[in-house]
Structures are given as structure tokens and as C-alpha cells.
Amino acid sequence: MTRRALLVLMHCLCWFKVWVDSSYSDAVFIREFTLIRHDDLLDDTPKEGPGGHKPEDASSRTARSEEDRDTLWDAWGTWSECSRTCGGGASYSLRRCLSSKTCEGQNIKYRTCSNVDCPADSEDFRAQQCSAHADVRYQGRYHEWLPVDNDPENPCALKCRAKATGQVVELAPKVLDGTRCYTESLDMCISGACQIVGCDHELGSTAKEDNCGVCNGDGSSCRLVRGQYKSQHATGKTEDTVISIPYGSRHVRLVLKGPDHLYLESKTLQGVKDELSLDETRQYVLENTTVDFQQLLDKAVLRITGPLGADFIVKVKYMNGADSTVQFIFYQPIVHRWRETDFFPCSVTCGGGYQLTSAECYDLRSNRVVVDQYCHYYPENVKPKPKLQECNMDPCPAIDGYKQIMPYDLYHPLPRWENSPWTACSTSCGGGMQSRSVSCVEEDMQGNMNPTDEWKCLYAPKTPILQPCNTFDCPTWLAQEWSPCTVTCGQGLRYRVVLCIDHRGLHAGGCSPTTKPHIKEECLVTVPCYKPIEKLPVEAKPPWFKQAIELEEETAVSEEPMFIRGAWGACSRTCGAGIQRRTVKCQMLLTFSQTIEDLPDDECEGPKPPESQPCYRTPCSGGTTEEEIEMTLTSEREELHDWEYEGFTECSATCAGGMQEAVVICLNKQTREAVDETLCVSARRPPQLLQSCNTEPCPPRWEMESWSFCSATCGVGLQTRAVTCVLRTGSHSNHTEKVKDENCRQPKPSSVQACNRFDCPPTWEVQEWSQCSRSCGGGSQKREIVCKQRMADGSLLELPETFCPTPSLPSVQPCGTVDCPAQWVSTNWTQCSATCGEGTQRLLVVCKVLGERGQYRTMVPEACSAAPKPPTVRSCLLGPCERLFKPVAVKPEPTILAQRNVYIQWRKGKKLHFVVGGFAYLLPWTPVVLRCPTRHFRKGQVRWLKDGKPLEITPHLSISHVGYVKIQQLRTSDAGTYTCVAGQAQENFVLKLIGSKQKLSVPEADLWSTDGLRDSPKVHQTSSATELLPHDRYDEIVRHLLDLKELPLDGVTSKELLDFAEKNSSNLDKDLVLDTSSPQLLVTDMLMLDEVRRNLSGAVQSSQKDELISQLLDELTKSHGENNESTLQPHESPTHSMRDSTFQRSKQRQSSHTSRQWRGQPQSPIILQKSSRDHIKNPHEIMDYVGGLILVQRETVKVEIKCQVQGNPEPVISWSKDGKVLRNSSRVGLMSDGSLHIQAPAETDTGLYTCTAANSLGSMSLSSHLQTTGSSCVSSEGNTSECSNKTNQYYFCHGQHCPHRWQVSTWSSCSVSCGGGMQSRIVTCQVASGASAACTGKKPAVTRHCNLQPCVSWATSPWGPCQGHCIGLRQALQYRHVFCQDKNGTRVAHQMCSGQPRPALQRNCTTEACALQWRVGSWTQCTATCGRHGFQSRHVTCSHRRSGKPAREFHCAWKPRPPSWQRCNIMSCGKGECRDSTRYCEKVRQLDLCPLPQFKLRCCQSCRDT
Questions:
Q1: Across 60-143, where does the E strand assignment appear?
Q2: What is the DSSP string of 905-936?
Q3: Which of 286, 522, 975, 1458 is most buried as measured by Cβ atoms within 10 A of its Cβ?
Q4: Residue 932 in contact with residue 914, Cβ under 8 Å?
Q5: What per-residue confidence (pLDDT) applies to 493?
Q6: pLDDT tens digit string along 1145-1200?
Q7: Could you tell me if 777 and 854 are in contact, meaning their C-beta atoms sit under 8 angstroms apart?
Q8: CB neighbours of 721 closer than 8 A, spacing ≥ 6?
Q9: Which pLDDT tens digit goes with each residue over 118-171?
Q10: Residues contacting residue 1316 through CB under 8 Å, at least 6 positions apart
């Protein structure tokens, strides 16, 4: 919607009018109904609308429809379109008044609509309305308007702020319907008035969300979490986790006080992590959650309304300064809730049964059922009670005649609660408790009661297991009235009767003697008793002396609470009866600290002694004079008052001897009250009295140190302290000494206590690292990481990975970061040089070192001298070259038999012959013949192109009648691309010249231009390598080879190569004088050079490139004798051995067919069967293919059985005879191409020879039967032949009747044992006597070759270091390489040495590194005294015998590992006997773990009294 269209829509809605049908006489305007609460808008509306329509009052304007007051209204119309498509809009419905009279009620009603959230990237609705005015001039200019939200005066007016000037303008009197009044409220503007919208999206609704975000909820779906965190800078950490707040939490508030900084980490349910640093006061957004952060001077406040879009982890980053505190509070959703299950199966199949439901714990986040422990974790979760219903009420059928069906409640009663008898009451009176056991039982068909699961009885309330008992009052003492005082003046005694009365009012026993009131007490008669002074006995001792003796027997403060009486104070009056007071305190002695502690009065037994009593000093006389009074007072002072001792002061020490002083007071003799000291004669004051106190030695006491730090920050840890029994050594010394615990009589204080008993946040538990995958060259080791949570009861709960909020620890780490020894690294074998028949494959081998980061580095070849170098050339066979399928009546397509080779001329020589399909880098003035062999096409009809144009004939360039291109002397103008076209097939040949400075001479034109071929017929691609590539494909390699041309081929380092390349300035003349022993032409296939090109592009250092080129040159020069014969003239072909001849013939066969080529797909072995008729040409030397019958005659000197195979990977060939594996010997040997050679075959060689080819995909076998015959046919010079029996066929002849014949002797021994030798024999012509004719026919051979197998032997490398796995005490293994090599030191296939005993690859050696043994510690105490759970353990380590240094356990694996744990105390604990079966029961009781069943069962005795 465009801005202008939105603006027009706003104006239309703001001035909306509804008109009635025009059929009425007067058009009645029904004004827009406005939902408002006040009468503010009534002033702006007319008192009466058009047509006499009376406007409604404000009270009728509500958001909900009302019932029609009468039938004057028409039906409500359809609802209008919603004002918004999302985010909550408004829709209205209209009706019209059908009467001309006034219609009571409203003509419009509203409802909310489109109550779905808008997309996150959508613009605010109020902002859209402001932006609609952007193309309307205001005060002569255009503005970009921004919305003004939360206007307190008029929230429903469209007020916008100009972005450039900041000016606030009211662009419209009211916003569109559905616009929010305030950003944080659901209330919406309708017709310019703000209307209340509840959380149920209903207009006028007062429904609100609870703290959990549930509309009209009761707050039970979440829980309040509050706590405090204090940073600990002393731990040395740089950061720490404050709290993990789970997904969906609301109303988060954190307050940080201190210098540290807060930051947040988030983790979504899909595992996506993010981080937010809180640096400044502003609003942040993390995982679609708004975060308000405020940085104040003394604190930082973090507020998140929520709900959280991911798990948030609040972390604190430590800064310098004091520790910080973080207070947090939030509402966490309860993600595990109880869910009621379906009804279980019925308890019976007929006759009436029952079925119940249960409840399962459901995870709302993962939508799966979890164990009940998750739901028990939240106290707010109350497991619903099971529901019960009847089922299968049909009567059971009668089986034996008539059977009466009993009623349901009698036939199969429901499970019910069964109670045991009540136990005796815990007290006899005053209210006690008694208990009983309640179990759920079920009655079977026979009436027997059997216990069953409790959930079956939960349909009914469980009967109580506790009840009060003996609630009546206990018997109490009842005291009678006091008797009269026993004296008539002064101080006497009085008595009373005390009875024990029970709750019935009867005199009975049972009262506590300690609480019995006293039955006598002193009494005072307020009449003075007068006695003359002279009547007092002269010998009477002062009264204070006797009192002092009595005071010594006063009770001191003890370790039991008791009332301690203080001294009586002075009388409140100086004459007459008064009141005197004293202090009475409940006190006890604290043994450990030896201090007196005041206690509440209810802690002391018995009634509290009185704190006041009446006193009497002197009578008050009314009529005496002052002199008489003074005389009376003086005499009375002498007679009535005297000094007496009033107790002692507190002892100066609580034990080990102290001192106390007697307190002297002035005492009224009659009232026995203390008076002012001035009333006593100072001259008669008694002397100071001291006495020793608390002389007994201090008893041993417990001395406790402070508690240690908690062993765990959560999930129940332990705190310990040292508790020792000490004894004070002297009365005047504070020094103590440690004594046995038995000397301390008080119970020993606990030395361990539980701490931090609350659930830990889920964390990652890490296992040990596994063994490294590599010992060198960069390996890796893994470990298992599990998300677990330690609960407050000490148990460990395994959780899904999403529960752990912190980032997961790495499960893989590098190891073995040391360089490996240098080794030969090879590429893949190149494709076979022939597409059919027999060819060769090459392997590029480079000396490399596997570095500590797992990457190879190229080294000089000398670095790999200790490692065996693999062979770099091998033969290959891709099947016979003859066509397998001959098309019928279809003319075959012409094909060109191309060769994918690259030729590099190394020295000047004679004429060179080439076949199209490759590249040639030649020296100038060299004669060249270029052939284009074809099939199904006449050679004389081939067409030649050069650089896409027809080839021009010049005096030095011509085309022969058979299609050859002959160049007499190669010139610069002859360089280019030569194309041979045969029908629709064509092949290219790129020819380049090497300049005078041994640099490549490249013509300016693109050698691979194909413009001239665009109009030519479609090219028939005869192989996979005919794609057009850049003309400089191999230029870089050839340049490098030419730079190394004059260098020796061995022993040149990379630096020397670079220096020589810079100084190389040889010219063409020097090439002419090169050693003729070097090859004239280097030949290689294109696939091999492509592999070299890839390696050169991957080499980083120039030394690595030089090494690759040097090795390539080495391989090419060593194998130059095996090049295709097409590069030489026919009369220049060298003399080859039979093996070379066979090789050359196979190369010719290979070039006859290129349409089928092996492309490198995996293939199981295939043995190619070939006919033998073309191969057996000479009876003295037989070469045949495996798979048929081979007849060997007496004169045969050598038999070669070929076994040509195909397969990828390359199959391994082995031979057997009559089921037994063949070994190399002086006569029978396995050649490098897999052929079997038998020299001088004899009758013992007769048998079944089997060739087996095998690779990783399978194997195949093919056999030939070799048989020796006794006849030989010797061809004569003519056309006839004479055949004679040689063995087992004898006939007798006499004299001239015997024919002439050749007589041969036995062969001599071979001149050499291997490598090809010679044997000889004597051949004579035996004739009859008198005959003159000579022997006819061919003379048998006098010499023959023997022992043609190569001279090979096993060779070994030096023994390696004595290391590796230990196999015994001080014994390890050392290894060496064993390989097969010829007499020149060249390594060959190991099968060629199979006939010789192979040296050992490994041997035992002695090393101190294996002087290791298992060491065991002592067994620990058994964890249980009885039962099945007791075990004990001990340490078992692998360590050095002398030094004791520990080693990894696999070094001691040569000897069985002793057990590290075993069962112990496997004995019955006694049925029904309550006893502890583990030694940890004391800790179980201290940690309050007895309520848990698993601890209570094993610690029965310790948990019995808890």
C-alpha cells in the first residue's frame, strides 16, 4: 500500500458516513458510533441528529452487543474487513433503525480481529500512518515523520515528530482503528478513543496475564526464583557464572553492586549460541528478547520483561577492586508437568471390575515423557489423584451347571486401605501421639487379602497413620491453706498440706516430685521481740561467724539450668513494715567456655523463688521528742543491728582454684534484713574473709577449630573441622595438651556438616582423554562429555545436552605433534599406457615428512634412505585387443589409434617416428615422421590440418601415399598443432621446438585454436583424453627438465638445482656432443605428467618443486629403453630379450584398439583367456596363456605361462601346482609381470598349474594342465617331417635295418644359478655300420639358455630402535624392513624371492624403559559389614622397578593387571535385624540423608531414632 493510498484511507475512515436506503423519503445519516468511557465527545455532537435520531448516551456505548430493546432495529449487518492484517485490529457491524421514532440502543458494535503477531521485520502500525504523510507538504516542505508513542494526554491522536527538526505535530485527530494506545499494552484505539482489551483479546475484558504469562492464570505454571551471588576475586578466576535463566522465563531483574561487569550468553533450543556485552545504558536485543540495561553510579540494573527466547546465562567479568554482589529475581516456567494417562486395562474380564488412571511427567520443551523425578522437583506440581471407573460388568458364564452370580461388591470388591492396630500412646497424659501402618490390599477370588500397589487405592482418601492420644491434663499438685505462724513475734515457721490431683479431681499418684511445692516456709510476725542485752550469753559467738559457715555451703552454678538467688536488698522503709527485693536468675554453666549464661525462666525446673518479701526494721513511734528518738536510735542501733556475712563474691576462676571474698552487710537482727551500714557500729565490723573456690582441676574439654570451606558450591558439599579433647596443664597457665577423646565426658561435637544443599546448574562432566590416534605427525584424541546435574540430595542426574547452558568443552584435541620419520609418499598409479593388451603404469614417489600439524613436507631423497623405496614402474593389461563383438550388417565407425604420450628430445639423433594424440618437444633440424594409424578407414584418405587449416606441402614437408607426414628438417615454422581427420574422427598432435638456449619456442598464434574446425564434421572422440586443453599444458614441466639437463641425476640438492638453473647457458651446439649413452628421446604418458602438474601446483616452496622435477627426470631416464617403438626407425630397433619382445608386441597390440579403455572404476579381478595357437611357434620355447592344455615335448627348453589380469585396485598374482603354492627355485620362477617360467621342464613338472588374481573386491582363478609327451617331430629340410618315439616306445633293429638318427647326451649343469646362463650337450649322428648316408632332419640344439629368472635375494635394513610395546620385563620389540632386490640393488616384487627363506621382521630386545611392573597398595576398609553391597579397593599402578616413576598402564600389559577392587563381607545381615551395613552411616545421619530409602535401608540402626 502506497503512502498516498494509506493517507486517503485514513481520511475515509476518519469521516466515515453511513446512509440508509434511498427508498426512504429522507436520507438519514447514522453518525459513527464511538466507543468511549466519558462524555467528552458529546459536546461536539448535535443534540439530535438528522431525521430525529436521538444520540445515545455514553453508558450505552460498550464494546459488547446488547439484546435488542424492541423490534424497531433491523438485523445486524455483516462484519467489516479487519482494520489490520496482523497485530490486532478492529472490525465493526452496523444496523439501521426501521422506525421514524427513536430507537433505543446502539447502531454499531465492534470486535477485535487479526490477533496474530506481525512478522519481526514489519513496521509499527503507528509508524506506517506517520510515514503516509511523507509526501504531503507541511509548512511548505516535506518531512520524514516518526511516531510519538505513549502520549499521556491523547494516546489515540496521530502525533508525529519530524526527523530533521524534531517538531511534534498532530497530523490527524485520531489513528486508524486497531492502533495500540500504548506500546506495552493491548488496549487499542477505536474511533479515536482508547478501549480496554484483555489478554483474551476481547474488548472491554479485564482478563490479565499472571506472572507466568498465562491469560487469567493462577500463577501455578511458574515459580519465583530469587537469590544472591557474591564474587570471589581471591580464587584467581577472571569470570564466573551468576545464574542460568531458562527459556521462557519472565520478569527478570538483576542488580549488580560493585566494580565487576555483567554480560550475557544465550543458547537456543537448537544449540545456537550468542553473546552480549552490557557496556552502556541502553536497550539491547538478544535472541528476539529485549534487554534493558541501566548503569548507575553505584550499581547496574538489568531488566528483561520476557519471555526469554533462549536459555540465558548471566556471567560476571571480574575487575580490580572489592568483591561484587548480584541480587536476582525472576519467574521460571515449570517445564515438567503432570499429565493424566488413559485408563489401565480392567482388573477382570467379566463379573464386574475396575480400572484406574495414572499420571506421567511430561516435558513441555521436548514434548516427551520423562521420569517422575523431574516433576517432583517442583513443589508446585501436585500429582493428580487417579480416577476409577467400573468395567466389564457383564456376568461371567456358568461353566459347571448353574452358578449364582454374586453382586459386584461381594464378587470382586475394590482394593481398600487396611490398617494395623494403633501403637501405644507416646505419653500417659498431656497429649501424645500413636501411629499405625496403612497398606493397600486386594481380595482375590478365594477371599485372601493380598497387598498391592498404593495407586490402586488412591481413589479413596488414605486413612491417617497418626492420631493424638491421652489429651487429658496430667495430675498436678494442689496446695492447701497455710497454717498460722508458730511464733507470736519475730520470725517463725508455717506449714500446709500438698495433694496430687488428677484430671477427674481425685487424689492419685503420678505427679513429678521435682515440681512439688514446699510444705513449710518461714513466716514473720510484725511484732518486735525485746530481750535485755545482758541476757545474751557471754560466750556466744558473733552471729556473722555462724552465718559465714552456712554461706560456704551455698549451691554454686552447675551445668544444669537452675535458679540462682541474689542477695536481699535494703528494706524500702526505715521503720515499720516494708519490702525488700533480690535478683533471681535462671543460669547455667557452659562447660567448654567456662562462662555463665543467662537463660529464660522456663528453662529451669521448679517454681521460681520469690524476688521480694516483707521487711521490718523498727516500729514507728509518734510522740517522742528528738532527743528521745536519738537516744532510742542509738540504743537500738547497738541492740538491733550488727554486722553479718552475706554470701561470697563470684569465684575468680571456674576451675583449677580461684578466690572469693565474703560480703559484709549491716543486718537488722529482728527482720534479718540488710540495712544501711551507718546503722551498724563501724568498730565492730568483722575482718575480711577470703576462701579458695573451684579448686578441682579443670576437666578435659573439646576444642574446635573453625569450619573449612565447603567442598562443593552446590548439590550438597561438606565442611570439616578439627575437634580434639584438650586438658589445661596448670591452674595459672592457659597452655593445654591433647588427650584421648574418652577423657572428655561431654558428647563430641560434630566434625563434619553439610553445606550448600541446593541443586547445581547442569554442567558438563568430562571423561578421560582416549589414546592418541597417531604417535607422530599430528593425531587426535577424544573424550566423552555428558551433561549432568547434581541434585540437592547428592544424586547425579544425566540430562539432554540442551540442558547445559555453558558452552560445551572440546571433545577432540590434537596430540602427537612431533614430526614423523621421513618416508616415501607415492601418488596413484597412472592409467595404463595401452588401452588394450599389455602396457605400463608409472608411480611418482616423493620423499616427504609428516609434520606435527599433519601436513607433508617434501624432503631430499637422501632423507628417506632408511625407508624402502617402492617400485615406480609396473606392467598392466587391459584385455585383448581383438574385438569381442562383431557388429552385424552395420558399418563400423572410423577410429584413430592415438597414443597419449609426451615426447621430449634429449639429444640429437636420427629420424623420429610419432603417432598422433600427444605432445612433442623437439630440437631443430630433426627429421620427423608423423603417423595416423586408423581402423575401418583407408590410410591414404586421411586429411591433415595444421592449426585448423589444411596442411600446406613445402619442399621439406610432404604427405606419403599411406598418410604419413614427413618433415625433412624441423624448423620454427613447423611448430603447431597437427590434426589428423579420418571421417568423423580426428586427433591432434602438438609439436613445439626447443630454442638455442634450450628455451621453448612458441608461435604467436594459439596452438590449440579450433576456428578451422568449426565447420568440420563432428569429432568422434576415441578416448577420454581428447578434450582441448591449453597449448602450454606441459611447458612448465619441460622447462624445468631442460634446466636440469646437464646436471648429474643423483645426489643434487634443491639449492644446487636452483643455482645451476640460473647459471645454465648451454646452447644447441653443446647438445651435439652429449654422451650418446643418454636417451635420445624421453617418453612418458600424459596422465603421469598431469599428476606431476597437480603436485607442482600444490608445492609451496621452490625446493619442493625441484625435488619433484628431479625425481621425474630420474624415472624417465631409467625407463627410456621401454619407450614405444614408434619413436625409432624400424632398422634402429634394439635387440631385446624374449620378455622385451613380448612387451613390444603387446605395445603394438595395444595401439590397435582404443575405443574401450579402463577409466579407473573399482573392479574385481578378471583373468583374460587367450588362444594359444599364435604363441606356440617354436617347440623348444613354449609361451602360452593360462586356461588350456599345454603339451611339452622332450626337446622343450623353456615354458612360459602368461596370466594377464584386469582389476582395480591392481590384483596380486600367485601360482600353485596341484593345490600347493609354488616357490621360486633354480628352474621354476615367478616373473615381475606375473608369468610363470619353467626352465628345462621334466616329467616331474607335469600337473595342474593355477593362476590366482586377488584384490580387495574379490579373486579369480584359472588353471592349465601341463603334460609331457614322449614323441617329437623334427622338421626336415623339405616338406616332410620325421617323427620318432623318444620315451616309453622301443623297438629292436639290427644293423643296416636301423635308421640313421641323432643321438644326444644329457644337458650339462647351468653355467650360472640365476640371471641367465647356458647349458650344453653332445649331439652325434648314429648310423648303421657300412652306411654312408648322414642323418637327415634338423640337428638338435647343442646349447640352450637356463636359469633365466633374475638374480634376486632378500635384503634387510638396519634394526630400528628398541621401543614399542613392552612384551616382558625389560623386553620390547625392534623392527626392520625386509625387501626383495636384484643384484643391482633395485627392489623388485617380493614374490620373486618367495623361494628363499625370508629374514625375520622383528626380534626381542632389552631396554630399561620396560623395567616396569604392577604395584599395588593396601586394601581399604570394607564399605559394608554385611549384605551384598560391600566392596574395598586399592591403588594399582604401573611404575618403574627402580625409580618408582609411574607409567601408562599399557606398558605393563604384558602381565595381567591385579584387581583394584573386590567384594567383601558377603554375609547375611540377619532377617529382621536392624543394623548398619556400611561404615558411612555416621555421615549419612549428619547429612540428614536418612529419609531417602536407599540410605535408610543400609543404615537402619543409625537412622532408627531420626
A1: 89-94, 108-113
A2: E-S--S-EEEESSSEEEE-TT--EEEE--EES
A3: 975
A4: no
A5: 83
A6: 333 433 333 333 344 578 888 888 776 544 455 667 888 888 888 888 877 888 99
A7: yes
A8: 704, 705, 706, 707, 708, 751, 752
A9: 887 788 889 989 988 888 888 888 889 999 988 888 899 999 999 888 889 998
A10: 1345, 1346, 1347, 1348
Burial tier of 627 (Cβ tally within 10 Å: 0-12, 13-18, 19+): exposed
Return d(Cα 493, Cα 502) in angstroms, integer.
Answer: 30
- What are 32's three cell numbers? 459513527
- State how far the Cα of 564 lies from the Cα of 609, in Å rounded to an integer: 9
Asked if 675 and 642 touch (Cβ cutoff 8 Å), the reply is no
Element (H, E) at 1069: helix 1068-1072
Integer CA distances (angstroms), 534 to 530, 638, 639, 819, 830, in order:
12, 13, 11, 124, 150
Dihedral-angle region of residue 948 (phi above 0 means left; psi in -120 to 50 means alpha; beta otherwise): left
What is the DSSP secondary-structure string of 1250-1306? EEEEEETTEEEEEEEEEEE-SEEEEE-SSS-EEEEE-SS------GGGSPPEEEE-P
Above 80 in pLDDT, residue 557?
no
Backbone φ and ψ of 365, nearest 5°: -80, -45
First to last CA, the chain: 77
Three cell numbers at 1044?
636440469
Burial (Cβ within 10 Å: 0-12, 13-18, ≥19) of residue 487: middle
pLDDT, position 536: 40
Higher local confidence (pLDDT), 1016 or 382 = 382
Maximal C-alpha separation, the chain: 211
How many whole angstroms separate alpha carbon 429 and alpha carbon 1184?
A: 120
Amino acid type, 850 = L
* Model confidence band, residue 621 (pLDDT cutoffs 50, 70, 90): low
- State the Cα–Cα distance between residues 1118 and 871, nearest whole angstrom: 12
At position 305, the amino acid (one-letter code) is T
Mind listing the pLDDT tens digit for each residue in 1391-1401?
788 778 889 88
Return the number of other C-beta atoms located less than 10 Å from residue 599's C-beta.
Answer: 13
Strands 919-922 and 985-994: parallel
Helical axes 1035-1043 vs 1054-1063, angle rounded to 10° = 90
Look-up: residue for cell 602438474?
1093
Q: Are residues 785 and 816 in contact, defined by beta-carbon separation less than 8 angstroms?
A: no
Nearest alpha-carbon partner for 1236 in 1191, 1184, 1201: 1201
Contact residues for 313 (Cβ-Cβ < 8 A; gap 6+): 241, 243, 244, 245, 264, 265, 266, 267, 805, 806
CB 281 within 8 A of CB 295: yes
The answer to whether the Cα torsion of 582, 584, 587, 589 is positive or negative is positive
Indicate if the pLDDT at residue 847 is higher than 50.
yes
Rounded Cα gap, residues 550 and 558, in angstroms: 19
Find cell 538489568 and name the residue.
302
- The residue among 405, 448, 441, 401 whose CA lies nearest residue 420 is 441
Q: Does residue 1216 surpass a pLDDT of 80?
A: yes
Output the pLDDT for position 1077.
57
Instruction: Report the pLDDT value the prediction gives residue 72, as an integer from 0 to 100.
Output: 80
pTM for the model: 0.31
1435 touches 1459 (CB < 8 A) = no
What distance lies between CA 1237 and its chain's CA centroid?
61
* Amino acid occupying residue 872: T
DSSP 181: S
- Written as nine digits, the cell of 615 is 521487711
Beta strands across the sheet bearing 845-850: 823-826, 845-850, 856-858
Task: Work out the number of other CB atoms within 10 angstroms of the CB of residue 382.
Answer: 11
What does 862-905 look like in DSSP terms, one character per residue?
GGGTTSPPPP-EEEEE---SS-S---SS-PPPPEE----EEEEE
Rounded Cα gap, residues 461 and 459, in angstroms: 7
Counted residue by residue, the chain has a size of 1506
Interval 254-266 mean pLDDT: 90
Phi and psi torsions of 735, nearest 5°? -70, 135
